[in-house]
User: Which sequence fits this backbone?
């Protein structure tokens, strides 16, 4: 079974049809840059471009970097603030010709995919997926069930929003060495661990492709810390999974 997934991020909008039997992309993903400012009009035009690249007309799952309640954005940390209160589900559906659209938080989507197809398979304790990208997204699972919209990237750490110091963007913007950045990520993980006592951290986002450069440098965390197996495709896969669940009335 194939359903289309699209992942809206602070730097790029990427999507592809997803083979939900395998938990992998059915075709190479197509990506466009997120416009700046990342207004609803500009971003949804990017979503339309990605969807039309494949000639897709069926159901669509979409992620968004913020809290999502019933298809509507409640926060917008790394996109334009005009998203707050926007009916994302309706806006995308209108732009792509009336297709049925399901929307969820981007890190929640990545976490769902990792729990089903990736590094979280079979884990029933507390598992936290963290996507280190433009910001820090989080997905918290207990007993295999998602606690949606956790937004742990906005925890305060040493007087700062954690994602301002430990995101992949912070590493690039400040030109940090892998060692220096790994030390910041370690402090962040220690803080989250103190609050939630997970058995497993799954580290996702685009930087997961380079996990060998920083994960071995992280010390003193009791939980197991592993890279995301689906890497930066996890959000696309999770979006498609959410759309399938909506189609099935789950």
Assistant:
């Amino acid at each position: 079974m194939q359903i289309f997934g699209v992942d809206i991020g602070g730097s790029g909008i990427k999507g592809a049809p997803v083979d939900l039997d395998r938990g992998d992309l059915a075709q190479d993903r197509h990506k466009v840059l997120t416009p700046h400012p990342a207004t609803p009009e500009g971003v949804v035009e990017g979503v339309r471009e990605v969807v039309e690249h494949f000639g897709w007309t069926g159901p669509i799952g979409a992620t968004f970097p913020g809290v999502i309640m019933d298809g509507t954005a409640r926060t917008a940390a790394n996109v334009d603030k005009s998203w707050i209160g926007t009916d994302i589900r309706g806006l995308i559906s209108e732009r792509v010709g009336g297709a049925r659209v399901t929307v969820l938080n981007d890190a929640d989507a990545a976490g769902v995919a990792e729990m089903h197809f990736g590094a979280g398979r079979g884990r029933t304790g507390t598992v936290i997926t963290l996507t280190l990208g433009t910001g820090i997204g989080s997905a918290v699972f207990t007993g295999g069930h998602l606690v949606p919209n956790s937004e742990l990237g906005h925890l305060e750490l040493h007087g700062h929003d954690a994602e301002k110091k430990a995101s992949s963007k912070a590493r690039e913007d400040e030109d940090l060495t892998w060692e220096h950045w790994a030390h910041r990520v370690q402090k962040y993980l220690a803080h989250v661990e103190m609050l939630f006592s997970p058995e497993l951290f799954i580290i996702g986002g685009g930087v997961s492709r380079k996990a060998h450069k920083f994960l071995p440098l992280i010390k003193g965390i009791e939980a197991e810390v592993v890279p995301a197996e689906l890497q930066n495709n996890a959000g696309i896969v999770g979006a498609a999974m959410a759309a399938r669940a909506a189609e099935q009335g789950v």
Observations:
- The chain has two domains: 2-104+239-248, 119-228.
- Helices lie at 40-53, 88-95, 106-117, 162-166, 168-173, 178-196, 234-247.
- The chain has a mean pLDDT of 96.
- Residues 209 and 233 are 11 Å apart (CA to CA).
